[in-house]
Every structure is written in C-alpha cells, then in structure tokens.
Records
---
Amino acid sequence: MAHLGSWNNWTRSDLIPVDLEDDDFFVPTVKDPTDLKIIVAGGVPGPESAVMHGWSGGSRSVSLAYTP
Amino acid sequence: MSEPEDEFEFFFEKSWSDGLPVIPPTEARIERLLGGTSRGANEPVGEIPPAFEAASVRDIAVHAVMAGCKPEYLPVVLAGVEAMLQEPFNINGIQATMHAVAPLMIVNGPYAKKIGINGGLGCFGPGFRANATIGRAIRLVLLNLGGGIPQITSMSTFSQPSRFTFCIRENEDESPGARFPKRSASDRMKMSLPSPPSRTPSLYLTTRAGTRSATLLPRPTRWPTWEAGTTGRARI
C-alpha cells in the first residue's frame, strides 16, 4: 500500500478512500454497491459472467432514451 | 482506377478512417440514411471534444454511412453521440487519456432487437452488422468530428480493439430481473466504460485534453461526400 501511495490517485478525496497504512487493505472496486450495474447479455449454452471495469473516477456511465 | 481516384484510398489519405476502408458517403447514401430519423438534417447534435467540432444530424449520418450503417440504425447512433456528451461521461478525458478506455454502448428495448443488435451468442464478436457498424460509427465520430486522433490527441498507451467498435444489446429475453437501467415506456440506451483499472490522474488528463484541442488541425466545416460515379472526386 505504501508503494501505491506514491500514486496521487490513491489519496485523492474524490476517489475511493484507501488506507495506505494497512498492507492488507482491499481496494474496493466501487464506491457504493449501487454503482454495480448488472446486465444480461450473451448466449445460453452455459453460465458465464464477465466483469467490465470503469475508468477509475474518470467517467460515469450514462443512459439516454432514444426515439426510433 | 488509379490510386488517387480510388475512393477508399482517398479516405485513407485524408485520415478520415479508423484504419479500415469506409463506405463512401455519397449524397444518395446520406439521404437514404437520413430517412431513418424524423429529425432535421441540420439539427445540431452537439460539439464533440476535444476538437469541439459542431456536429449536426447530417454530420452524424455521414459517419454512419462511412461505418456501414443501415438507415434504421441512425436513431441509435444519434442517441449514442448525445449520451456521450453528457458531462458525467467525460468524453473529453476519454478522448485524450493515456488509458485504453473505450465507450461501450448497451442498447435495450424492442427497437434494438428489431434492428438486429445482437445481445445473444457472440454479442461482442464479429458477424453482426448492427453491432459492428453502430459501434464503428461512434468511433468515426470521435475520430473525425471529435479529433480524438491516435498519437496526436489520443495518447492511449496501448489502446484496445474495442476502440474499433463496441456495441451490444441487453438480452432482455434471458434476464431474470428488470430491464436495465429501469423499465420505462421508451427504449433506453446505456453507455459505460469497461477497461482495466487505472492509476491515471483524470483531472490532469482532462486539462491536457483542453490544451491540446487548441493545436488541432482545422477540420472541414462540412463533411465531404463522394460521388465516384459522376466526378470521381470528393465534394467538400
């Protein structure tokens, strides 16, 4: 964690807080569970899943209604 | 046909391609594509960063033609561009960052299924025109109207193949839960950003994108059409 602390992103207040003093600290993937978006896509031959990360704190997903 | 008169080579020479041949946007093709929307051709869609080129419905249609879209895909492409311009999405930073981030478009609703966007087997892979061309149109808009040009304004260290095209449909038929993001009367589209985690300072990159936008070469005020059958030259 001390090594990670040399990167400014880990200490930015607008990003996920990280305890740089705790070497066993798990860095959370999201700030809040509601940030997890679960989507069903793909075929059905077998159960598979994929995790697709966002761009750290650089961007938020958006949605928009469209008119055909 | 000699090389300078070859429409495919023309678009490569002008750097108006994603590295693959594009469909020449003839006036007839543009008009046919504009038939896919009830919106006016000159209606503004927005300014695409970092070049902040003002894009109209027609400009988006030109790039949809170039990508190989059918007219019925145009409403989705237009909505995709407008969604990316929402501030929380930070398309300005996405365009310029050294990260490999790429926009993913997830479309749902009956219209998405009707026009053939694949959300089933192989949805991220090749073989499905709607997925391939809608996502490609978004990328061509980001390249040509936004000026997110690799090695010039787009400084992604590695980039990634999903920057060519990245569009799927939510498989609502197989979903045990509610439609994503929420059930509503209208079709909805979701854009998100799959990528590995980054240690890149986003604030710095956003600033850099703004700075670099001033160094962009001038872009055409009106995107050209290609009339190979009449003149063999691009009309600007």
Note: The beta strands of chain A are 62-66.
---
Amino acid sequence: MTSGVGLVRLTVNGQPATENLAGACAGFAIPGCTFLLSGGLGAGKSTFARAFVRALIGADEEVPSPTFTLVQQYGPIDRGGVDIEIWHADLYRLGDPDEVLELGLDEAFGTAICLIEWPDRLGSFAPNDAIELIFDFAADKGAGSEVREVIARVPDKWRADFAAACEKAGVEVRGPDE
Amino acid sequence: MALEEQTAPSGTPLVLGIETSCDETAAAIVDGAGTVHANVVFSQIEDHAPFGGVVPEIAARAHLDHLEPVIAHALEEAGLDFDELDAVAATGGPGLIGGVLVGTMTAKAIAMARGIPYLAINHLEAHALTARLTDKVAFPYLLLLVSGGHCQLIAVEGLGRYRRLGTTIDDAVGEAFDKTAKLLGMGYPGGPALEKAATTGHPGRFDLPRPMVGKPGCDFSFSGLKTAVRQKVEAIAAPTQQDIADIAAAFQEAVAGSLVNRCRNAIRTFSEEHGTGHALVVAGGVAANQRIRTALSELAEKSGMSFTAPPIALCTDNAAMVAWAGIERLQAGESDPLSFAPRPRWPLDPGAPKAIGAGVKA
C-alpha cells in the first residue's frame, strides 16, 4: 500500500447521495485540489461533477458534458477573498498524454480546482496529491439499482476533510477490506 | 469596363473561411451568390500520411501543422489566388482555445497582408446560417442543432438575432449516440454504426424512456437514456446480434421521440411569435440519421412548416459555413477589428434562461 494515501470504500445510495457527497467535497476544495473521477458509463462521474460545480458556482449554472469540448471552465468566483476557478475535463478523446499540456491542464492542477473524468489518459501528468474516486455499480443490487460503490484513494493532506465530507453527506464509509 | 464592374452584382464577394475550433482543420471559399468554390476538411485530403493519419485534431499543434496546406488546397481547388479574396472569416469561438487561436491568427495575418476585411465568426452562428447558403431559407426559421457537442433549439430571427429556446442539460445527442454505441460494443464514432444496426432491429421489444417527453419547455436530456440502455444491456447475459439491433432500434426511437416532443414545444413558442409557414431546419452531424430526419420532417409537415436539412458535408463541422456567415455579415456592412480576442465560450443568445435540472431522470 502506498504510504500517505488512505483507501476507503463508500456506499452511495442513489443520485441525491452522490450530489450530497459532491457538495460536501466542494465545501473543502481549494485551488490546487484535484478530483480524479473514474468508472463506467452512467456510474455517477458526471453527476458528481455537475453537483460539485453547482455547489460552488450556483445552483442554476449550466454544466454541460465536457466529452466533446474536453474542458469546461467555470469561474473565477470570489470565495472568501480567494479567486476560485473550476476546470471540468473529460479526457476520453485524448490520444496522447502530451495533449494534457496543450489543454493547459498541468498549470490548472496548480491554480484551479480540477475535476477530471477518464484520468487514466493523464499518464505521468496525474498530480500526486489528487483525490481519486472510482465509481462502480453495487454488485449485489442488480442492473437497475441506483446504489453505487465508490473506492476513494485519499492522500493524507485531504484525509480529515474527506472523512468529514462523507459524514456530512451521510455516506457510509468502510475500510479497504470490508 | 468600369461601368461593368459597378453593375456587377454586389452580392458576389469571395470569402475564405477557416474552421479550427473542434476536431477538424478546414478551409473553404464561398461567394456571395452561395457558390462553394472549395470546401476542404483536412481529414478528407488523401495525402495526409505525412501527418500520421486521421486523428481528431484536439491539439493546437495539429491545427497549426495542417491549416496552411488545407488553405493552399482550397485555393488550388477553387483555382484562385489570395489576391482574389475579398475577405477572410475564421471561427473565433466557442471551442478549444488553442485551435481557435491558430485559425484566428492565420486569418488576421491574411487580412493584414492583403488589406481585406477580417471577420470573427461564432461557430454556432455559422451552423445556424448554413440553411441560407444551401437552401436560401428566409428569416425567421427554427433551427434544431444536433451534434456531438451541441443540442439546441434556436429561433433564427435575423442576422445576429438568435433566441435559444432550449438546450441540453447534460449530454449532447451525438454524444448519447456515441456512448450508446460503445455500450453496444460498436466503434467510435458510433452514430452511423448504431443506425445501421437499428435497421434490422425491432424498436418495440425493449422499453426505453423518452427523455423529457411531456415536460414543459424545450430543453433536452440524454444522460438518463444512456443509463437505461446500460441496464438493458447488462440484464442480458450474452447479447446476440439481434439483441443489439433491437436495443439500437429502441434507442433511436427514444431519441427521435424525445427530439420530436421538444421540437413540438419549440414550434408552438416559435409560431406564437412568428406565425406559421416558416422552416424547421435541422443541422449538425446527427441530422445524417434517417430515422430522425423522417420523424422531424413529419412533424414539420403536421405543423405547417417546411423542412430543410442541409447536405451532410455542410451539416458537420466545415469551413464553408464559416465563409458563408462571413459573407452575410460582410454584406450587412460588418467586419471585426484585428484586436478581436478568441472566445472559448461564446453563447449565441447570452440572455437565454439557464437550462437547469440535475441530470434529469429520463
């Protein structure tokens, strides 16, 4: 196990719970904080990202899919004297990790709050201290279920904030092996 | 001779159009009468091997490499020289900033070197005006723009007067086609493959939701439909070709049903203001889908509207539409300063009400 990174399993019961978790995570995110969102189609990545953006920018913000445009930027907004910009990226269509540089993502990782779908395309450009959320369908609930199992890899620097966010969102947290 | 020049139709300027805002590097030359002298998209040029094959031109670097040969190719195809151009128009947004910058800087350089007007074109406006290039459609008309990146209903009331009646609150419809095709094990881009599979399918076998149907307004949502397809696929242990075809057919029907329902609401709104007898225009790559075309054409007929779908080469991203939008604006006496700054976000109708709803369940 990598030192400095905690692994937990979350059970997220439906779309509203995913949105609550996203809102709680948006509550502690600061510039330089990156969320890597993995999982199959319809697993909840976009639901999380949309709720996250709206929690910061406003409930009536349009948050279209970034699949075609690759990156959607929001802000900057003033939050307690700090200018916050959010980058919502979908790297599904990237062919080469070098294109990460052309999109300006490497710089954004340092200055903005970043939500990255299909982060495996980042290659070596993935930030070391990113929070990684892997969404999956709850195995025992059947194909029609709304319940999601989320594996979260959380670097130490965010561990307390993330745990508090889960508690605030009412999301059940278990250890890695449970 | 001078007299002849003066009496030459004023509507025949030759305009070079440049499109670099998305996946395609494209250049075209169009005149004021609507004749397309050349319409070159990089991926269509045969000798692209030196550039490493056909890949989406996401990177600004790729646009930079390709744009010059594409413009040269367009001039050669049209049998024209830079000297004969009356103006240059380039997509100035919305889109990926790197690509837009490449097209914008190139257009400005040409305009400056030749002393001709420069026009920064909104990519969406170019799509919106294409039906006037191809079919001489008169204002006002109702536009359904359906592509990989956009899904919007726009009342095109005049040049520069666009009112957005609806947009997607999550995925664009072309994206829904691609993602559904992926769930069904088809390649990218999946739209044509899915349509082909659907021809041998029974749309009634699987019950899929028709997103937003019955809801007021003209907004779209396709995220929930994608999830519903996934559930149908996963419920089958080993899907046969027939299962795939049946799901594809059901998906296509659901999309057509949703588009028709949203368009019907938009037609009502549009007709209240503009009366009947105008055109319903469909543009964007998804307009290539025959089932959707048929459904929209039937709706137009029932609603007392004519139906126009530009040829597919001018429906997908291209530079002829950019040149044409430039011509329309030029003829209205407009041009842009060389200080124009590219705009990654550039809504056609900045005053449009926001489309909210958190990934509405289909």
Note: The domain at 5-98+132-174 of chain A is CATH 3.40.50.300 (Rossmann fold).
